[in-house]
Amino acid sequence: MTPMVELICCGAINWDINLFVERLPRAGEEVRVRVIERVSGGTAANVSVAAARILGPGRVAFIGALGGDEIGARQLRILEDEGVDHSGVLIVEGVESGQAYITIDER
Fold it and tell me: How far apart are CA 85 and CA 50, in angstroms?
């Protein structure tokens, strides 16, 4: 029997590019990026994955939009691997999936 969805998360799904720097730059200054980490992100997507880990596969659904690009395809695979129902995700061809560049001070 197919499990019933208990929680629906609707909202952001992004591809986070975390840029680890020794320190944050001052205005107009450049600093070297020491490590780049690319991970799935977006508040609603993160909540849906966390909830699926607690409630179990098929009990959480995610509604959002992704571009019809490689990042979008990767995000769908991640949701599926985590047991999140992604049938409510709209794929928008010709548009890039959301990305967030996040600068992280290593101190």
Answer: 13
